[in-house]
Amino acid sequence: MPTNPFSSFGDRKKRRIDDLAATAGDAERQPADDAKVGAAATGSAQHAGNGGTQGPTVEDAGAIAGGAGQSLLASAWERLRRDKVFLVGAGITLVFVLLALFAPLIAPHDPTKGLLLNQVRQMTNPVPGAQPGFPLGGDTVGRDLLSRLIVGSRQTLIVGVFATLGGLAGGLTLGTLAGALGGWVDSFVMRAVDVMLSIPSLLLAISIAALAPEPSQITLIIAIAVVQVPIFARLLRGSLLAQRSSDHVLAARALGVRPVSIIFRHMLPNALGPVIVQATLVLATSIIDAAALSFLGLGNPDDRQPEWGAMLGTAQQYLGDYPHLAVFPALCIIVVALGFTLMGESLREALDPKSRR
Amino acid sequence: MLRFVLRRLLQMVGVVIVLSFLLFVWLRSLPGGTVSAILGERATPQTRAALTKALGLDQPIWVQYGSYAKRLLSGDFGVSTGVLPGTDALDIFLTRFPATLELSILAILLAVSAAIPLGYLAARRRATWFDNTSILVSLVGVAVPVFFLAFLLKYYFAIEHNWLPVSGRQSSGVDATRVTGFFVLDGIITQEWDAAWDAFKHLILPAIALATIPFAVIFRITRASVLDVMEEDFVRTARSKGLTQRVIRGRHILRNALLPVVTIIGLQVGGLFAGAVLTETVFNFGGVGETLATAFTLRDYSVLQVIILAAAITYVIVNLLVDIAYAIIDPRIRTR
């Protein structure tokens, strides 16, 4: 972008997004390019081998030879399967999703009922301890902590997934408009996106949440989704622009394919790789941001639906005597966020042969 | 160089204008609208009508934005309704801003002084246990919610062991003279060393909590950037010329690798402010961040407005300074 008046602000953030976008443009050519695939395989072997292996191993050589006729996704999968980092991340994510889906079946007790309420004494024993049937004890109103943690995974997943989908939908629309139409639409959309990127994201989320008369789960999701919109918009526009001049689009145009169908069937599918990578990373940040907003009292005020961030927030009062009330929900957030991050980072590495992070 | 700075300044003005317009739209779309936000829900229709007219809300929207911008330029953000009822919102901001600034400066210093050496070492010892451990630490650093880390630090160092103060900026027994509003600086200026030391002790825990995310980000960028530069042709050339390792590492690798790091440090300032909202709340630090959280709970829109605008402007200014610094370090930027 030669004439971008806002290009100075958030340059690095943007460049990172743009780099990711650029990987989509190469998608068609990469598998044929043996040298590149070989280099990437070396990179991921070092990454996965925890310091043991330097340079390609016999297995990698097999992957390179087999990679010649493979699509990018197939060769990426080939690399991911041996990437320990990816496997750990994917494992965490899988467990978390299963937990959230079957939470009511797994949870030993009803998370909304104060089963241990008769043990709660305001002054002497505000938090019931661990006991048979209640391995983590209860919370301040006698509800089973373990069940609340398990059911809490649902809220976290709902907020994370819907915020990401919302951001994706907004970003997809804006990015496609900008990248496909070009011209003044492009400049207008990108200026707006750049200004949004120049506001610190949590601050933006707080300001948006403040617009709602009452905080609720939906306002929380909207606030976090809006913050993600500019990231996805920029990413998509970048990869659409990269493809506009590529051979497969030229071929489609020469064959007389309608522009709409070029965009939706020839360009967008090729842009999906980086979008999936970004979405995985965004899921992690939106879970952490949701926790922060809940902590500030901008989350779902209904505490019958347990949510890790809100649990963490209320635990603050009892920190001195009952730190475990805060530690468990926090550990859940950390592990899940880490899972998504690990998965996203190794996906990015697999899809981008140049990356070495 | 002057032209470069001027161009960047103009761009900054553009961003601030757009921001103020967004803020204006934001204020107008608040629940109940500006009138309710100022008067509260219980105002009579007469006072509402009077205020609507007095605020010019019956005028066309661009006229309204014009007068709004004029008020902002004259520093009139309205009167606080919740945080300190009746006090000028700008005054509240100005008295509390030094606390946040002091905290953020210490945090970014901590983050930079730990992240750059560690990132450099991790890159030099790529794929060793040291490298892998530090990558893991930096990944966890991003995944840990800032306020939880603040909890932990507070619990371990302040509540369990009583090594450092639990909350606030100054112990209640300390009688310090105020000059600038920066407590540590005040203590140094007035040579009240006890007060300065006490204020510094209050800063340590929140600063560490605040520093984690910038640390993790700067660490990873430094590492990636050093790895990139190490494979550059000019490094190989330097090696083949027979330059000493010290010169190669210091002058060729480190200097070039730090270029992207400078930018990322500027970008972290925005994240710092968001982090300050959380850490200050945990430590009752009394800075702008905590005030923002309170203002939100109490729906004090005048105060919210000042803080949001100021945070965005600070962010933009810091990034402008970073850009200028960048142009000084790397002459290639200016010609772009």
Assign the CATH superfamily of the largest domain in chain B.
Answer: MetI-like
Q: How many H/I helices of chain B?
A: 14
Tell how many strands the DSSP assignment of chain A holds.
0
* CA-based gyration radius of chain A: 24 Å
Q: What is the 3D form of chain A?
A: elongated
Provide the number of structural domains of chain B: 2
The CATH C-level name of the largest domain in chain B is Mainly Alpha
Report the average pLDDT across residues of chain B.
83
CATH fold assignment of chain A: MetI-like fold
Please summarize the sheet with the most strands of chain A: none
Under CATH, the topology of the largest domain in chain B is which?
MetI-like fold
Describe the structure.
The complex is a heterodimer of chains A (357) and B (336). Chain A is mainly alpha-helical and 357 residues long. Chain A has one domain: Orthogonal Bundle (MetI-like fold). Chain A has helices at 11-25, 34-48, 58-67, 72-81, 84-101, 103-106, 145-181, 183-197, 201-209, 217-244, 247-254, 259-295, 308-315, 324-351. The two termini of chain A are 26 Å apart. The model of chain A is unreliable at 1-9 and 25-68 (pLDDT under 50). Helix content of chain B is 77%, strand content 0%. By secondary structure, chain B is an all-alpha fold. The mean pLDDT of chain B is 83. Chain B has two domains: 2-73, no CATH class; 96-335, MetI-like (MetI-like fold, Orthogonal Bundle).
Search tags:
heterodimer; A: 357 residues; mainly alpha; MetI-like fold; 14 helices; 0% strand; B: 336 residues; 2 domains; globular
Summarize the SSE layout with pairings:
The complex is a heterodimer of chains A (357) and B (336).
Chain A: H1 11-25, H2 34-48, H3 58-67, H4 72-81, H5 84-101, H6 103-106, H7 145-181, H8 183-197, H9 201-209, H10 217-244, H11 247-254, H12 259-295, H13 308-315, H14 324-351
Helix pairs in contact in A: 1-10, 1-12, 2-3, 4-14, 5-7, 5-14, 7-8, 7-10, 7-12, 8-10, 9-10, 10-12, 11-12, 12-13, 12-14, 13-14
Chain B: H1 2-28, H2 33-39, H3 45-54, H4 61-73, H5 89-124, H6 129-143, H7 146-160, H8 183-189, H9 193-230, H10 233-240, H11 245-283, H12 288-297, H13 301-329, H14 332-335
Helix pairs in contact in B: 1-13, 5-6, 5-9, 5-11, 5-13, 6-9, 7-9, 7-11, 8-9, 9-11, 10-11, 11-12, 11-13, 12-13
